[in-house]
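FAQ: What does a ligand-bound record look like?

Like this one, built around pyridoxal-5'-phosphate:
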Amino acid sequence: MFPKEDLKTYLKAHVLVFFVHNIFKYSLHQVIWPLAAGINTMSKNLKPIHLDYSGAGYSPSALVKRSIYSASKQADCYPYEGYDMLHEKIAEYCKTESRNIYATNGGDEAIELLVTIFGRKMLVPIPTYNEYEYIGKSRNSEIRYKNCLRDDNSYSLNYTKADLKWATLVWICNPNNPTGSIIPRRDILWVLDNTDAIVAVDEAYYEFAGNSVVDLIKKYKNLVVLRTFSKGFGLAGLRLGYMVSDSSRISSLKAAAQEFNVNRIARAAGIAALSSLGYYKKRIASMKRLRDEFEQFALGLGIYAFKSNGGFAFLKFKSIAELEKIYVGLKNKGIFVFKASDSEFTGLKGPYMRIAIGNRGDLSVLKKELKSLMQKQKLSDGKLR
Ligand SMILES: Cc1ncc(COP(=O)(O)O)c(C=O)c1O
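The answer part, i.e. the structure of the complex:
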């Protein structure tokens, strides 16, 4: 048998092992796993919903997906051939000729080229998309901001003849981001008839609004229309846009750009998207229905909703305090939207919020949270009175 001392040591060691083992087992089952599961469920519930940047909320057509895949097989080759095909396809879509088209690395490259070449003195309508100002500042443009949003919530161009004489580049965003307002054709014609400056009409949301002045490029050599595949065609991640203008204007813009400004995959996707118009028309129509339903829903909650013609809704709350409460409340639930002070917009001040429409699922989560936050808000308003 064991000598007495050895037996003591043996027992002590066993008791220690028993305790360490059971404490470990207990903490694994009672503390560590539940904590990990909790964190996991929490992170699942808090999967962020991005309704700030306006993604399409639908996937590319089957043809676009196939084209992306087959173009990827030539990823090792510079995209020296193939621009003509894209330009021809866009020209067919715009009912013009390919010499009037220049494809760009997103609409933002078109903005960059226009500002760099013509933007010495720019007229910028406000509020609007921030990129005109952003690039203008980096190129030392002189900028005149012209307020277009009125107290009655209407939005219309506010350029005078003197402004138009002064400018070298005039911006018009149609429909305007973020208000979603349409700029009537007669107002654009008035601008074109009263200036020698380049008039850049940004039709990024054309597929939602259906209004265009592309047909005027024949008459007005100073008109440049820019568009993108990021919105209606949902290809923001591939960066593809284009400009439509007089052919000599297009040549000078092209001369200032990089030789291979649009990559193979974006080009193939763009051609395929324009060959899948039926698919995209259906998706855009249902997104417009979602947008209109959402605007009615917001009005029902007592929030002013602009009549938007873009892929987003634009809301006005009663006060900045109300906007902030709702904005923070949504953010705490992992729902991200844009508010007026975000750098996405130029000249937007006040209790405004822009919500990208996205898909039905994300939008219904947002609606539920918005409703509950507005109810809480009304209760706390009532208590204050
Ligand atoms: C009005 C407007 N123009 C141009 C763009 C640029 O689009 P992209 O560079 O994604 O083609 C945007 C993007 O948000 C926009 O809202």
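Follow-up question: can I read anything off the structure? Yes, for example: The mean pLDDT is 90.
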